Amino acid sequence: MKTLLKQQYKNFTGSSSESLDQIHDRLQKLISQLEILRESLSQKDINLKFLRSLPTDWRTHTLIWRNKTDLEDQSLDDLFNSFKIYESEMGMLTVRVRRFLQRTGRNLRANGPTSIGFNMSKVECYNCHRKGHFARECRSPKDTRRNVPVEP
């Protein structure tokens, strides 16, 4: 039994279909079972196991945490709560960005460039001051008054 649990702990990993809570709960249960059997695990080892078990979506965040010096001083629950706070903040930020993009008429796609929807009938050329195009697309002669250097 003990050998089987140690092997499960060694091979423990989370899947991308699991939530942060599910991964934490499974690892916590496994650690509890090992502790009942008097298997000692260092806090740093437990925390590193949790960090390494997270899906690739968390890669950047886990790299930051792995390099922290106080990893052995944090409990698994403290580490988990830090990730939950981060997850919550990212969720709120996503909502705010979407709301901003809706208000400004922009569309942000996850796997592509940002497309900006301009109503070209409202765009005014800085060169000829007519509506419907940008100055870089203007066919009128360039406004030389704008490029005259100002003398002191």
Spatial order of the strands in the main sheet? 1-2
Return the structural class.
Answer: mainly alpha
Multimeric state of these chains? single chain
Ends apart, CA distance between termini = 87 Å
Q: Outline the biggest β-sheet.
A: 2 strands, antiparallel
Percent in helix: 40-55%
Number of beta strands: 2
Overall pLDDT score: 83
Radius of gyration: 28 Å
| Strand percent estimate | under 5%
- Secondary structure tally, helices: 5
Shape: rod-shaped
* H-E order: HHHHHEE
What this model shows, in words?
It contains five helices and two strands. The chain is 49% helix and 3% strand. It has 152 residues and is an all-alpha fold. The longest helix has 29 residues, at 76-104.
Throw out a few tags for this protein.
single chain; 152 residues; mainly alpha; two-stranded antiparallel ribbon; 3% strand
Short overview:
The chain has 152 residues and is mostly helical. It is 49% helix and 3% strand. It has a domain of 78 residues.
